[in-house]
Amino acid sequence: MMRVIKIGGNELKLPGFIDDLARALAQLGEPAIVVHGGGREIDELQLQLGQQPIKIQGMRYTDTDALNAAMMILCGLVSKRLVAGLINVGVNAMGLSGVDGGLLRVQKYPHSDLDLGFVGEIVHVRQDLLSLLTSHGITPVISPICLGEDGQIYNVNADEAASIIAISIRAKSIDFVSNVPGVMVGTELLHAITESESERLILQGSINSGMIPKVQSAFKAITGGVKDVRIVDLEHLIKPGGTRFTLRPSGYPSEAIQITAGGAQ
Questions:
Q1: Which three-class secondary structure state does DSSP give residue 227?
Q2: What is the largest CA-CA distance in the chain?
Q3: Can you tell me the distance from the alpha carbon of 253 to that of 39, in angstroms, rounded to the nearest whole number?
Q4: What's the average model confidence in pLDDT over 225-246?
Q5: What secondary structure letter does DSSP report for 139?
Q6: Which of 141, 158, 165, 180 has the alpha carbon at shortest distance from 221?
Q7: Rounded distance, CA 61 to CA 64, Å?
Q8: Sequence-distant (≥ 6) Cβ neighbours of residue 260 within 8 angstroms
Q9: Sorting pLDDT into bands at 50, 70 and 90, what band is 215?
Q10: Are 38 and 74 a contacting pair, CB within 8 Å?
Q11: What pLDDT digit, counting tens, does each position of 16-62 carry?
Q12: Which ranges in the chain belong to alpha helices (H)?
């Protein structure tokens, strides 16, 4: 069984991070799929281009200009820098976006209160393509720029993309690698958290900003059948640590997640 590892864009800029990540991947001894973000560098490019980045509940409002900036950073700068770094230390990596091969197909993200622009929600994953690559010893490195069923290109939150990929391939685990050791309340690391606890901490503001979609995506993964779900720092990727997510108490109703997996549509 495969495992999914989601890497934040902030971490990729840390000196030595990519080399350390590659060494960790080499020690896993099993197929892995890497999904990456790049939010800080998208912000930087938007500002250079005279755009003002807008975040809503940790998600980027994506108009045409923001989408172009996201594609340049995620599919270009970050993807190639990460793939090059992995290959340089012996990991057979291949960079893909969700557009390539129709890997991730989406619909426009439904939001009850507002329009997030060109933000997508994944409805189909080409499991066959991911299985083909990993069966040949290739580590897919996926940027969450995806193709809509309407033919439009959409931006997708990288945490959510990683979660949906993990569900669709029935991954054994998913690790959201962060620059912090897990979910923190003040200076305290939560070693385990339930969904009701996370909702309370979000309302209190203890979980905020970009950690919100990360936590929500973690619970989406575990509800969707992924058994082992963590937020963790790179140091603990291949050993115990981080914050582990647990299901709500037995009998609590949860929303079913319907994602198709198969060949290209």
A1: coil
A2: 51
A3: 33
A4: 93
A5: E
A6: 165
A7: 10
A8: 123, 124, 125, 168
A9: very high
A10: yes
A11: 898 899 889 888 878 899 999 998 999 999 999 999 999 887 788 99
A12: 9-12, 17-28, 39-48, 64-71, 79-88, 127-135, 158-168, 195-204, 211-223
For domain 3-261, the question of CATH label 3.40.1160.10 is answered with yes
Nearest to 144, CA basis, from 171, 173, 114, 164: 164
Q: How many angstroms separate the CA atoms of 138 and 132, rounded?
A: 9
Cα separation, 234 vs 19, whole angstroms: 11
Domain ranges of the chain: 3-261
Distance of CA 206 to the CA centre of its chain: 21
Q: Is-contact 138 93, C-beta < 8 A?
A: yes
Q: What is the pTM of this model?
A: 0.89
Q: Which amino acid is at 195?
A: E
Instruction: List C-alpha distances in Å: 159 to 187, 206, 264.
Output: 23, 19, 23
Number of H helices, E strands in the chain: 9, 17
Helix-helix angle 195-204:211-223, to 10 degrees: 160
The alpha carbons of the chain give a radius of gyration, in whole angstroms, of: 17
Q: How far apart are CA 78 and CA 188, in angstroms?
A: 32
User: Three-state SS for 18?
Assistant: helix
DSSP letter at 137 equals: T
Q: Would you state the structure tokens that stand for residue 167, as one six-digit string?
A: 């569900």
Residue 12, token pair as written in the block: 């990729």
Q: For residue 227, what are its two tokens?
A: 């058994």
